[in-house]
Design brief:
Strands 1, 2, 3, 4, 5 and 6 form a 6-stranded antiparallel beta sheet that branches. By secondary structure, the protein is of the alpha+beta class. It has one domain: SH3 type barrels. It is elongated and about 65 Å long. Helix 3 packs across helix 4. It has 4 helices and 6 strands. The N and C termini lie far apart (about 65 Å).
Length: about 130
């Protein structure tokens, strides 16, 4: 069999036989959004998704959330920060123009109120 002689139908059969790659379109739905990104080694970071796929994510205007507490005291976890914003006693790094996180990660989209809160918090200094 010559691979150059395969029909489109035969190519589709081969793709189904070996399994298809995960759709990158799911990752692309986050591009341009301000998010909190959680990963194993990098912890929590906030920023604008510049690019994302199954291998990693590039955040623009990225800030690491070292110690984080939601603005809404009755809530917990970083999802609460994505909804209500971050408390003033949280510890957040200075923003960097771009940050690559190349490991398993999750993205949580922030509300406009939370984005303003995270962008506006003073960077932690030693």
């Amino acid at each position: 069999m010559d691979i150059n002689d395969l029909t489109i139908g035969q190519c589709k059969e081969l793709v189904n036989l070996f399994g298809s790659q995960p759709s990158e379109s799911l990752h692309k739905t986050f591009v341009g959004k301000y998010v909190i990104c959680r990963s194993r080694n990098e912890g929590l970071n906030a920023g604008v998704v510049l690019a994302a796929d199954s291998t990693g994510v590039i955040l623009g205007e990225a800030r690491r959330l070292w110690y984080h507490k939601p603005l809404k005291e009755s809530a917990c976890w970083y999802e609460a920060i994505a909804n209500s914003g971050i408390s003033p006693e949280s510890k957040v790094s200075e923003p960097v123009s771009q940050k690559l996180i190349c490991e398993d990660y999750s993205l949580t989209v922030c509300t406009a109120k939370a984005e303003e809160s995270i962008r506006g918090i003073k960077s932690h200094e030693n």
